Amino acid sequence: MNKILETRLLAPAIKLFKVEALKIAKKRKAGQFIILRVREDGERIPLTIADSNIEEGSITFIVQGVGKTTKQLNSLEAGDFISDIVGPLGRPSRIENFGTAVSIGGGVGAAIAYPTAKALKEAGNYVISIVGGRSKEFVILEDEMKATSDEFYPCTDDGTYGFHGFVTQKLQQLIDSGKKIDYVLAIGPIPMMEGVANVTKPYRIETSASLNTIMVDGTGMCGGCRVIVGGKTKFACVDGPEFDAHEVDFKILSNRNKMYLTQEQTSEDEHSCFLDKMYEKGKANG
Question: Measuring CA to CA, how many Å separate 91 from each of 44, 70, 88, 94, 95?
Fold first, then answer.
């Protein structure tokens, strides 16, 4: 059991958790993730480690409530317990002094972009961070990203804050301005990461994407997280999650991530129905 030390709502349905996990805090590196179960009989979900505090013995991760399990998790508060957490898993981000490095996070992807941007800065890079959201309220971790970046650009789809447009458009604007960029890391929705790869490919800018795949065990045994990179099968949990974005088959990745949408919706509907019944029963009992 892992005790929740702190929770904080960052945006609608997006919540930050700080949880006791000393052994993971001691070993984790930027880019790695955990797999947790909210309850002992629940499903396993992967979440990137956004930060850690060895003195406190804690790790931080950020959750967007989009399905049954993530909504269950987001219903918990400080003092509650998570059934179990396994990690750190996956290969750490490739951190070296590239020169000028751009860390791009779309939506909750900023939770992954932040630790990587921090590590890139510590490695001596000039760090540019681009963070996107549908509107101002969905631009998360702004203070943290600013603190570790030489340049910070918030972007919103509706123009309510920062640059009016997509993160890909801001990246293209920087390239067009003559800014020399040596490395780009993209983290977020699949269409966004593919868009970033399409922007940088003509300029031969080294670009990585952190892939958010379907995952079960996190050790390469189940094969659920397999992706096609450079025409070869890779496993995101042990070979990644970061890969050469110019080599990723994003079409196959997108199709695979949609495989269980019907089952996920059915499970969520059943859970919602159960909660409604419990609520009505409670009302009837006074």
Answer: 19, 24, 9, 9, 11
pLDDT digits (tens, 9 = 90+) for 253-267: 888 777 655 555 565
CATH 1.10.150.170 fits 100-257, yes or no: no
Which conformational region is residue 184 in: left (phi greater than 0), alpha (psi within -120 to 50 degrees), or beta? beta
Helix (H, G, I), strand (E, B) or coil at 245: coil
Strands 84-89 and 163-164: unpaired
**Homologous superfamily of the 2-89 domain (CATH):** Translation factors (2.40.30.10)
**Domain 100-257 in the same topology as domain 2-89:** no
The predicted-structure confidence for 10-41, as pLDDT tens digits, reads as follows: 988 899 999 999 999 999 999 899 999 999 98
Cis bond before residue 88 (omega within 30° of 0): yes
Q: Report yes or no: 236 and 225 within 8 Å, Cβ to Cβ.
A: yes
Domain boundaries, the chain: 2-89, 100-257
pTM of the model: 0.84
